[in-house]
Amino acid sequence: MCKVAKKRILVLSQDPGLIGSLKANFPGRSYKMVLIEKDDGRLKENLEALQPDVVLIDILAPGVEGVQTMLEVRQLSPAPILGLCKSREHRDRVRRLDLKSDNYLSEPLTFTDLMKQIEAITSPATTG
Question: Which of 33, 59, 88, 123 is deepest in the core (most CB within 10 A)?
Fold first, then answer.
C-alpha cells in the first residue's frame, strides 16, 4: 500500500486562538504542521528543513513581524504564502504593499475556510 506524503505547512503566528484551532484540528489530517510562535532568527533554516508546501503568516502578529517575514519567505522559498489579517481593513492595507502573497484571509475565520484556501493554493492546478 502506497503512503501519500503529507503536505507540509509552516505556520508563523502568536495568536492563541489560531494556534489552538490549528493544534486541535490538524492531527489526523494529511498535513504536517510546524508552528513558529516567535521569530527566532532561524527562518531560513526552518524553510530549508521543512521545505513547506504552504506558509501561513499572521501578518500583524507581534513578535513575528509579519510583513517583513512575508518578504523574506518570498525571497527564500517558492512555497505559496497565505497571509492572515485581523480585519478586512488590515488586509486591504497590506495588499496595497504588493507583497505578492498568494492569498489573504481576514479573521475571524473558520478552520473550514482555512483548509479550503490551503487546498486551493497547494493543488497541482495552481502550483505548477
Answer: 59
